[in-house]
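Below is the data:
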Amino acid sequence: MEKLSVGQTAVICRESARRGVVRITFLTLLSNIVLTAVKGIAGMLAGSAALISDAANSASDVFYGIIVLLGVRIAGREADEDHPYGYERFESLVTMLLGAVVTLAGLFIGFDGIQKVWQGATYGLEPPNPTALWVAAGVIAFKLFMTLFTRARAKRYKSDVLAAAAADHGSDALATSGVFIGIAAAQMGLPIMDPIASLVIALLIIRTGVSIISNAVGQVTDKSAGHEFENAIRAIIAENDQVVDIDKLLTRVFGDRIYVDVEISLPGDYSIHDAHAIGDDIHNEIETRMPEVKHCMVHINPA
């Protein structure tokens, strides 16, 4: 059997990760379609404004899933003449669009909740049917499972889109918890708590949307990979005892990948051939041991 090179192995791993992201996103899309229908129908039959608002939240997640599938497909393209550095940043743009959609959904749900609270304070409201309480409990349990499952896969595949999806699942679980509390309070004689719960949902959704947008902006504005990641790079370089010093280390996030620029000092009497070989070793070591690195540039300075 032919042995694969480090570069070929990295490409295969990235393609496997991309397929994994697509599978999980498609699963999330299907589950959100079912949840939208279940919460919407149950909310209308039970007369729960909070559950209907939660259904609208799931409907926005369906829209998000369609966008993400498209974005991941584009981000998985190989570099070409028009995009010589690849298409990874399209995933960040999709994530940003997701944040905008989530934020807008929160604003619309909040506006509807304010109207229903005013209506309840003015004319009074009937408490929702207890069935809505059981539906909310089931949705919470499912969303907690999806949060943990998606978060684990986001770490495994190093996917910002899945990390955003996990955050959205967590937000959904909190939102539906507010629905549960509001419906329970309505059953105990405080029917206005049901639309108030929809306002709480709106605030949580808006907060999640703004957070997603903030993270995506960092990915498209050359934000550094952070001190922890850079210290790991420094540790790899320090293992080479021929390196006199690390003069400069710069990192920048590029979608779900990272570019690294390093300047190291070597003894001034080294030949160009020897210095290049050391730089090549460091370059290969970093890209092999840090699979999230898209490219590492090593510049040699004479000590």
